[in-house]
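About this split. The held-out portion is used to measure sequence recovery: a designer receives only the structure tokens and must propose an amino acid at every position. Recovery is the fraction of positions where the proposal matches the reference. Here is one held-out target exactly as it appears in the evaluation file.
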């Protein structure tokens, strides 16, 4: 039996992970499950998987969680310290599926104990990639990509030499507003942005898909996972979301990874790596699909992609600033304090304002990342307020 924990168990990735674990209970000994406000679901998952411990991120939800777990023998805990303690409980395999920079500290704790970290939480890699990878190396831990594009690249690289990779192409569906004009984008609402044409995901990543901030994070994520030069990472708009990524080699060969838009493939691959197992995902019928289409992304409508390149060029802690500014701008959009297209403007303003701050040049330690994260959220808030006056 392998000991497993799932951070962010009640989210979209978390629920899929719980479902896959539940499908082979004889293989998994579940240690900890964590969630947020939805304690009824968290308790149900913990009972279903016979977890040792359930943790809600919110102290005010502890009483409800305790009540929902009454008589089960499952421990209940709440708050940041409890999340970190859960990440320190020995486990062989840990899913990191909290959304946002909040996933960084638990992910680091999981790596420090030498576990295999299945990393869906791309924000932690964007904010602190060198720190995560260094921690993994020092502890002998393994980081496995769970984002569909990065799982695809990882699979295309099996048996290959990274030295012979010429380029990595990740695809983007284009999200909810793929064909919208700039004028229409300016008036787009959170409800419209939260409808993805192909993938069923959490609200935040769905809106990030519409703004292409998700793809911008993924470009940086590609660099952190595979260590390739920024200029060798390309983004291709592919409305069908069936080809997830392509790896181009020095001899001109291009390896593509295809699959249905179903995260259970990438999650299942990370659960069983280096083996492959039968997974409950639809099999692609390409004759029925008929054709696959591709086009270059329009960086005028989607400035997030240009910003990602600037962030990679700046290096050091600019990834932490970028991610935090993006999270704050998304909050402001959800609160209807700024419009859809203003998110990228706010992020660009924050990056420009922080450019002079020496903090941005510091080493990528947890303390520095948290400091820059905090600073960037403050600057984003200022930028949002200035727009409204
Ligand atoms: P979600 O919003 O559906 O779920 C997020 C989970 O994190 C929930 O369990 C929630 O309770 C928990 N959470 C939220 N804020 C928290 C905090 N401050 N502290 C502790 N826990 C907190 O999100 P999701 O779509 O499942 O995405 C999870 C992660 O996986 C994100 O980093 C996302 O970018 C990445 N990802 C998701 C998909 C997808 O298909 N959903 C695909 C690729 C990558
Ligand atoms: Mg992705």
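Reference sequence for scoring:
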């Amino acid at each position: 039996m392998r000991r497993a924990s799932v951070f962010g168990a009640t989210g979209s990735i978390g629920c899929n992970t719980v479902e896959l674990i539940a499908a082979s209970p004889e293989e998994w000994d579940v240690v900890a499950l964590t969630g947020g406000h939805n304690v009824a679901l968290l308790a149900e998952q913990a009972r279903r998987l016979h977890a040792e411990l359930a943790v809600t991120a919110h102290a005010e939800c502890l009483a409800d969680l305790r009540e929902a777990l009454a008589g089960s023998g499952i421990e209940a805990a709440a708050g940041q310290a409890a999340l970190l303690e859960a990440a320190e409980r020995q486990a062989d395999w840990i899913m990191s599926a909290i959304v946002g920079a909040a996933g960084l500290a638990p992910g680091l704790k999981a790596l420090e104990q030498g576990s295999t970290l299945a990393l869906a939480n791309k924000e932690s890699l964007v904010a602190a990639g060198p720190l995560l990878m260094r921690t993994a190396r020092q502890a002998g831990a393994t980081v496995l990509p769970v984002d569909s594009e990065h799982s695809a690249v990882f699979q295309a690289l099996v048996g290959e030499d990274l030295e012979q990779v010429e380029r990595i192409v990740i695809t983007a569906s284009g999200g909810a507003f793929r064909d919208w004009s700039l004028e229409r984008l300016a008036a787009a609402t959170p409800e419209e942005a939260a409808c993805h044409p192909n993938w069923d995901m959490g609200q935040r990543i769905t809106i990030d898909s519409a703004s292409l901030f998700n793809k911008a994070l993924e470009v940086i994520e590609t660099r952190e996972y595979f260590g390739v030069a920024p200029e060798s990472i390309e983004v291709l708009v592919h409305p069908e979301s069936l080809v997830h990524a392509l790896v181009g080699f020095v001899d001109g060969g291009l390896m593509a990874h295809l699959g249905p838009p179903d995260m259970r493939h990438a999650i299942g691959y990370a659960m069983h790596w280096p083996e492959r197992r039968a997974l409950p995902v639809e099999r692609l019928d390409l004759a029925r699909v008929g054709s696959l289409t591709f086009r270059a992304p329009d960086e005028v409508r989607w400035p997030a992609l240009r910003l990602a390149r600037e962030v990679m060029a700046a290096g050091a802690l600019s990834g932490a600033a970028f991610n935090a500014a993006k999270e704050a701008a998304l909050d402001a959009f959800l609160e209807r304090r700024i419009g859809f297209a203003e998110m990228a403007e706010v992020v660009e303003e924050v990056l420009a304002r922080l450019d002079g701050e020496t903090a941005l040049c510091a080493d990528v330690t947890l303390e520095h990342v948290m400091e820059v994260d905090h600073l960037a959220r403050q600057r984003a808030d200022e930028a949002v307020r200035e727009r409204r006056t």
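Annotator remark: Residues 147-149, 218 surround magnesium ion (ligand 2) (CB under 6 Å).
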